Amino acid sequence: MVRKSAKPNEIIFDTALIKRDKYYVPPSDDGSDLKELLRRLAAAGAGRPVDKHGIPMGPWTPELLAAAISQIDANKSGIELRTVQLWFQDNDKGISPENIRWLARIFGCNDPEATSKWQTELSAAQSRLVAKRRAQRKKSKNGDGQLPSDGDARVALRSEGELPAELSQDTDVSEPRRRFGLAAKSEAIFGRGSPLDLAASVFAGAVALGFVSYFLGIHSVNYIQADGQVKQVGFLWTANWTLVFMLFLPLYFAFVVELLAFWKTAGRPSLTEECENSWARKVDAYSVTYWVVFLICILFAGLLQWVARNLIPLMTGDTADYVIDWGTIAVVSPEKVSVGGSITFTGLAYLYMSVFFYLFFAGFILLYSLAQDYWEISDSSTHRPNLTGDFSAIDVGTRIMRSIFRCTVLALLIAISMKLQSAYLASNNPNVFDWLYSNFAPGTGVGNGLNDGNSHIRPTHFSSLLVAMAACVVFFHGSVRVQAVWRRHSVVGKLPRRGSIPFMTAIIALLAATYMSVGAFPGFSVLLGIGLLLAIYGLFDPEFGRRQTNDQGDRQGVP
Predict the structure, then answer these.
(1) CA distance 507 to 407
(2) Would strands 222-224 and 230-232 be described as parallel, antiparallel, or unpaired?
(3) Does the predicted model carry a pTM greater than 0.85?
(4) CA distance linking residue 114 with residue 120, whole number of Å
(5) Residues 6 or more apart in contact with residue 164 via CB below 8 angstroms
(6) Which helix (H) or strand (E) holds 3?
(7) pLDDT tens, 258-303?
(8) Which residues are CB-neighbours of 178 under 8 A, at least 6 positions away?
(9) Which of 31, 40, 156, 529 has the most CB atoms less than 10 A away?
(10) Rounded to 10 degrees, what is the CA torsion of 233, 516, 297, 455?
């Protein structure tokens, strides 16, 4: 409703339609089902803010409605954009009671009385939609009770008595229940919840292990070797447990989660009109890879390594094949920690390590598949060159390369930490700091920073090599795919940001060389220091100062 002002040519919206500075549409109870009602309210902009003239600021889109629902204080878990998109489509999906509650608050402009009315109206419209479905299913049957063929059979198979009530809420009744998929479950771990959930989980686990090691008395332990040299082998002194799980891995997970969220909510929709299910299908295509990595991480890197490295030596007392560390110190110093306590603690530690290292490799599978999906979309007929006006193919590729570079840097730092610890245990230095210093400044009388020539088995050397190789493969695959898209979509006056990738590649090559040099020759710690400084800088500025230059180039027009 509108009314004319006393002034000529001035129209003012009725203040009765405005509640709390939002456009209010009262329930009409016209018998519409939920789909029809939602489309009408979205087009009218019911519940949207109004300008100074009382005019609503446009209609609801799935993106705007999902953002508004997620911003409701009482809604702690938010809502996925895909769920809201399905509400707007002509399908068999309804809306759950909880989401009806949030919609009522939106359309009721957060007014208690209006919200109550809209909750009643939406619930009634939901009931009408369910009744309409039932009528259509009954009508789809033939007169002799036989079900029709083709596509209607899948819907007709679910008769009124066979259809659970909950399937009518945010669920497609024509879609069969999917079997368990490791790929989808792994992607969901990265793609749902807060970006800090996974990072905080791995950090909290590392802190818990540190506390337990302190209570057991193995957080800082000196071991006297056969040559009389005192060596620090405490749990908190191990770079591959402290630095990796308290710093590098949480940062890695944060970057993967952030990139995946951008790709699913902004990057991919800017480039293609394909629905989110197409991304889910591409994730499922790597299902075998996920299972292979899962078995290797859990069975071999976790269970078998723990049995061979800790359980058998602790039970037999034979540690000849492995150097003494915090996990086997009970064999030579039972007064410091009991064998039973060591078995329990090392078992928990290796279980924790294997689970999060599986997620670490799963993150790289996601990065690989994301870069591949980006390249395929750009090369397909469904690609739309920045129809939304948000991100172009070049912008999305730049964002992808920044995250892949950061993740690769962190993975190589993890591999270096693992190899550093393994090489230190095989050296004749009292602690890791003296070991690195003696390598940097030979002639100090504390060794040369290399191993003592023993024949101990070093499984960490092999596992760290797998980490480094996986990281480099994903980085080079991503750089090739992104640059291919950039070459395809570069136009005059819009320079692709290719200049930064050679810098990224040089840093990755330097870190890979640093990894290979650890414990290989005197003076490797110099290369380690240079690589570490460049890696830290690269995490803050992946484009190494090239971004501003390219942004200026982007703004250059054709004269």
Answers:
(1) 13
(2) antiparallel
(3) no
(4) 10
(5) none
(6) strand 2-4
(7) 999 999 888 888 887 666 678 888 999 999 999 999 999 999 999 9
(8) 184
(9) 156
(10) -50
